[in-house]
Amino acid sequence: MRAILCAGLATLMGFAMPGAVAAQIANPAMLAPDTRFEAPGVPAPDQTNTTDKLFAQLTAEGGLAEVVLGELATEKAGAEAVQDFAARMVEDHTTANDDLAAIAENSQIPLPDELNAEHQAMQARLEALEGAAFDLAYMRGQVVDHQKTVQLLIWEIGFGQARELQNFASDTLPVVLGHLKDARAIVTELTQVDVALNPDENPPPRPE
Q1: What is the pTM (predicted TM-score) of this model?
Q2: Which CATH class is domain 49-197?
Q3: Does the CA dihedral 11-147-96-82 come out positive or negative?
Q4: CA-to-CA dists, residue 94 to 1, 115, 132, angstroms
């Protein structure tokens, strides 16, 4: 049911799904060389594979950025909707980050503790913006980041092996899809306001 649900959600959100996503939880793909086996060709359950480790590290990078950039936005955002969204990102992703960190510790997966280069550049760009320009840039970045996170979660559900990480991905996916939906709605609203206030900077498209 998890696989079917994720496939349906991904289709609704416009994401392409890998064929193996229909596999059950605890898919033994991409096994590490030190994988333990119950029998020839049958890996012991609940072990981390290469996908699990990469998923945990990439998701931790994104989750850390959500908190850092969310804290920045709660201080700098002008629109109330953006402030509320940023506060929710700090709360929700702090919880998710703590849950992921506990699982990673049990699985001996090292997680990053600082922003990656991409998010450092985004942080610097946002710090240089003010007002409506900040709001729109932050929210557009949220759409992109949450799209990436949705794909990571679906990937882990389809290709992971460690049950705890797959369950984490399955439980987190609806939350992140909700964030993505709200971020898109706020971007649409902010863009409409920007066009209305700055018509000279947003000319209508030329007829073909």
Answers
A1: 0.75
A2: mainly alpha
A3: negative
A4: 28, 15, 26
